[in-house]
Design goal:
It is a single chain. By secondary structure, the protein is an alpha/beta fold. The protein has eleven helices and twelve strands. Helix content is 34%, strand content 15%. Strands 1-2-3 form a three-stranded parallel beta sheet, with helices on one face. A three-stranded antiparallel beta sheet has the order 4-5-8. A hairpin with a 3-residue loop joins strand 6 and strand 7. The longest helix has 16 residues. The two termini are 39 Å apart.
Length: 310
């Protein structure tokens, strides 16, 4: 694989919380323990939610904890720009390549129509798009386009795509029955996460992706996009989520667990020690610096299942 290149790619839509920090630390530890290159990319595709002030605060919070990066936001590097909002022309070119292959079609369905009860569902409750707009005639599409801007979907084959996750092990999905045709560009023109993240990780030569296991089921469709775009996929490590006692995933709405509150309650070493304990790297939560934790980091000790934060 050559030199390890990992990344942390947060969405600057609010203050980082404990769960974000857990994934960031594990990504950083994996790279630093191998002497690799760390990239910080801002996934600020959504102009309504993402703000520069959040990006600057996020970078400051990472530095406070002791998580540095070699290229990316505020530093630059050979694979920039490192903000997705500045890379839309690159996504447009990738989108056009897929369009030229006849793999993309406009979808005029409203959210309510997409979530209609008649649509097939996966066992986890995710709606699988039934392909209604793929069957429209050219005349029907032209008529709908007069009153509604379409999203654009990628046609997926009836094919199983599998991979072995570095932490979770073997995982497979049939793209047609488990995923369905998925959106590559929203009706407002914003490119979807699936396209942007694949293009960026490929173009930035990222060969290891560490992220929350809530994104595990996104990986097969991303692997399909890597294949279609002729890009080399990375190795994936999907880490456990931090959850509240009632099973809810920690989110940016949990203000008592965001970085503003955490920086008042903990020193960087205390917070790193707590996260390192949850990550299976320490026998008990005790103050430790990230660079010290990197010296003993071991993926085999990281738990697979979600971690309850009391």
């Amino acid at each position: 694989m050559g030199e390890l290149r990992g990344r942390f790619a947060p969405s600057p839509s609010g203050r980082m919380h404990l769960g974000n920090l857990f994934s960031a630390l594990l990504a950083w530890l994996s790279v630093r323990s191998a002497g690799g290159v760390m990239v910080l990319r801002m996934e600020d595709l959504d102009p309504d939610r993402c703000k520069e002030e959040y990006a600057a605060q996020l970078a400051d919070d990472l530095r406070w904890l002791g998580l540095d990066w070699d290229e990316g936001y505020e530093k630059g590097g050979p694979h920039g720009p490192y903000r997705q909002s500045e890379r839309t022309q690159l996504y447009a070119a990738a989108f056009q390549r897929l369009e030229e292959q006849g793999l993309i079609y406009p979808c005029f369905c409203t959210r309510a129509e997409r979530l209609a009860a008649s649509a097939p569902h996966r066992s986890d409750g995710q709606v699988i798009y039934g392909g209604k707009c793929k069957r429209l005639t050219e005349e029907e599409r032209n008529e709908l386009a007069k009153t509604r801007r379409p999203a654009w979907r990628l046609t997926v084959p009836d094919r199983e795509i599998s991979f072995t996750d570095g932490l979770q092990g073997f995982y497979a999905e049939n793209l047609l029955s488990d995923c369905g045709d998925f959106i590559l560009r929203r009706s407002d023109g914003v490119y979807a996460y699936q396209l942007a993240v694949v293009y960026d990780d490929g173009a930035m030569a990222v060969n290891q992706v560490v992220r929350g296991r809530d994104l595990l089921d996104s990986t097969p469709r991303q692997l399909y996009l890597y294949e279609l775009l002729g890009l080399t996929p990375p190795e994936f490590y999907h880490v456990p989520l931090l959850t509240a006692p009632d099973g809810r995933r920690l989110s940016k709405r949990e203000k008592d667990l965001d970085m503003g509150a955490l920086r008042q309650r903990f020193t960087p070493a205390e917070l790193t020690g707590l996260l390192g304990y949850w990550a299976g790297q320490l026998d008990r939560p005790e103050p430790v610096l990230p660079k010290e934790l990197a010296q003993i980091f071991d993926w085999s000790k990281v738990p697979k299942e979600d971690i309850v934060v009391e």
